[in-house]
Amino acid sequence: MTGKAVIGVAGCGTMGLPMARRLHAAGHEVWGFDVRPVSEFGDFENRMIADPATFADTVDTVISVVRDRRQTFDLLFDEQAIMCAARPPSNVVISSTLSPRILPKIAERLPARTMLADAPMSGAPGRAEDGTLTFMLGAPDTALAHLMPLLQAMGGDIHHLGDTGTGMTCKVVNNFVAVSSVATVRKALAASEALGLDPHRLLDVMSTSSGGTWYGDNLDQISWSREGYDPANTIGILEKDMQSFLDAVSGRDDVGVDDFAESVLDIIRSLEPLES
After folding, report:
1. Is residue 199 within 8 Å of residue 193, measured between CB atoms?
2. What is the rounded average pLDDT of the residues 122-129?
3. In a shared domain, residues 185 and 259
4. Secondary structure of residue 17 in the 3-state scheme
5. Are residue 130 and residue 200 in the same domain, yes or no?
6. What is the pLDDT of residues 35-74, one digit of tens each?
7. What predicted TM-score, i.e. pTM, was given to this entire model?
8. β-sheet bridge partners, residue 160
9. Within a 10 A sphere around the Cβ of 36, how many other Cβ atoms?
């Protein structure tokens, strides 16, 4: 690994901005980039770079935390096109949740000298702020000395699963379970209320029994847990995450989850806001 040890976080939203702050607090030189005006980033404004070419020229390692496939390709190659700049970053880390099938498409468009890794994370914005995210890392062994200190500044559990692509594979399978549990818990809460059982009491019992889930156990701590479906909000991201899983397993008759996953998607798309 070579480089200036200057880190860029692209996509400074509810996850990316606290991740950038954690890197900065740990002593790393870090710069943020987002398509929104830098004035929207409060006390981090002076560490935001508005121009994509300047951002590309400044940072050696870019951690991409943009929303989806389209925004990833816009960032790297099409609209902001930081990898088409005169001096593009030499390391690209994809921390968005995408289908692992997309990574070879990214790799084939990167400069030959650029290292590509995938490090999707799990954890709500609160864990990003605390620096306790779980990272699923797919990267060559030669990249670990450079990447591990960065991930350790942002996360509590770092799992190196193998070469590039393995982290994203793990993440979409993990999210298949997570999205399914969101749909199941929301249906369980509706059933509880319909049957005359206080949903809060149900959650209390589930948290200490076989019905426990990350979503149900932390419903009051997860900032988006009571949202209804909207393509632009976090419940909408759950839809994207399930579709990423379905893309990863498409054509695999030995998995056989299509009908079940589509049923879960139908539930996610029908969710109304949950009352407190």
Report:
1. yes
2. 93
3. yes
4. helix
5. no
6. 999 999 999 999 999 999 999 999 999 999 999 999 999 9
7. 0.94
8. 137
9. 11
pLDDT single digits (tens) 60-119? 999 999 999 999 999 999 999 999 999 999 999 999 999 999 999 999 999 999 999 999
Averaged pLDDT, 200-208 = 98
Burial of 159 (0-12, 13-18, 19+ CB in 10 A): middle
Who contacts 19 (Cβ-Cβ below 8 Å, separation ≥6)?
A: 9, 63, 65, 95, 121, 128, 133, 154
Task: Please state the domain count of the chain.
Answer: 2
User: Residue type at 19?
Assistant: M
The whole-number pLDDT of residue 29 equals: 97
Angle at 88 between CA 84 and CA 94, to 5 degrees: 95
Q: What percent of the chain has pLDDT over 90?
A: 97
**96, two tokens:** 């968005």
Task: For residue 24, give both structure tokens.
Answer: 């900065």
Query: Among 145, 164, 183, which residue terminates a domain?
Result: 164
Cα(138)–Cα(162) distance, rounded to whole angstroms?
5
In whole angstroms, give the CA distance from residue 202 to residue 13: 33
In terms of residue numbers, what domain contains 210?
Answer: 169-270
Residue 152 sits in the same domain as residue 21: yes
Length of the chain: 276
Domain final position from 106, 132, 164: 164
44 with 152, same domain: the answer is yes
